[in-house]
Amino acid sequence: MYVAVKGGERAIDNAHAWLAEERRGDRAVAELSPEQIREQLGLAVNRVMAEGSLFDPDLAALAIKQARGDLIEAVFLIRAYRTTLPRFGATDPVDTGAMACDRRISATFKDAPGGQVLGPTFDYTHRLLDFKLAAEGEVPEAPMAEPRREATPHITDFLNNEDIIEREPVSDATPGDLTRVPMAFPAGRDIRLQSLARGDEGFLLGMAYSTQRGYARNHAFVGELRIGRVPVEMEIPELGFAIEIGEIELTECETVNQFKGSKTEPPQFTRGYGLVFGQSERKAIAVALVDRALRWEELGEDNQGAPAQDAEFVLSHADNIQATGFLEHIKLPHYVDFQSELELVRKLRAEAGASATLADREAAE
Amino acid sequence: MTQPSSITTFDRKAWMSLIAGAPAQDVLALWDACAPHPGFDWLRRPETGAVMVRGRMGGTGAPFNLGEMTVTRCSLTIADGVVGHGYVQGRSKPHAEAAAMIDALMQTGEAETVTKAILEPLQKARQASRDQRAAKAAATKVEFFTLVRGEDA
Q1: Domain span at residue A303?
Q2: Position A231 pLDDT exceeds 70
Q3: Nearest CA to CA, how far is A344 from chain B (Å)?
């Protein structure tokens, strides 16, 4: 049976007109500008840039406005937009050691060179609603102190000097790109880190939390968490040298994890790594924990069958645009599919009814 | 007493980098106020695209692709065949055009004028903005002090 799906145009147009009106809300309340969203809802903007996998705060703010604050819908808009952009090339890897740090903390070394710099953090706030924010008022300028001029060294450098933490193999190999070649398994760490960087924060938070609760426990310390701006350099083919094409804000988390050693490696600390666009520290920590859990095989650890150790499970379900696309498509017309199911169930019931009637008759005889 | 005015010298990488990362409205305001606006021919009209930003595993290891950023670029030529390239962060085509014009003029006798009118103010603004963030960060640095225990006192 064929079900024609036509005649919805007017309803759809009207639905979208109403959507626009609802998006605007009460006209007695001033309209939000993308600039206000960019400046005052910066962490939402950061999340949309990270999961949209495109660093452009103006676009992310516009997407949040268009999506009425639905951040996954905003990420969807950014992902759709980025597919329209020609790719000019790839940058040189950013040097996070040269980051101008707004925030830099270590849970492992109290007196790390460069110090514990808290930055604009929610930590140590009382999580009490601040009703003053509901009233208009000027914010006083934050206090200042003598700025640090030199770069802040990575904490893992100190452990490296003692040779007590695994070394990151240095290479300039061209990394795989899951936006160009569909993900395949087993996935290398380059692909895993790319996938985690654009993965859903909530999903990764849950995965990371599961490792802390004992599913592939690997006891992570936050060796270092840093947030700040790094210059982005790219080779310009017309020039034959690299220039800074701009500056981006990043959050980097390095975890230091216990490791008993293996047949080839002495006992030492191992590392998990998370790098995310914007100020997104919950996500950067989560990425580092999940990255470390996914490294079980290369470190010669046991597969405990934990979800966070299963790269195929984690990476296939971390992308909220893939997930929402498949999840939400089931609300769209499935009239034909359902019609066939309906007919099947009717037929089975008719058959069951017929055999029951037959059985009754036989029992009666 | 007048100080002899010193001029910061920029090499091509430095001036292109400065213009690329500066806020579009700042570059355009300074460019509009700067006197010489010679005619030019496009070699490549402004186009917005993306570049893939890379990071390194553990900060120092093998590269991986982190995500993209928007970039706008163009190329043009002014009199005597001097070629200017503009590569700027974001999606502003006027910003890219101004960047390419500045790049071209910096290769001509106008270099000193452009340096004074555009590059130096941008450099100063960038430094001020960086210093201010660094100063606010420095004010949030924890100064640990240890409480002396009774029996050790």
Answers
A1: 96-119+151-167+182-324
A2: yes
A3: 48
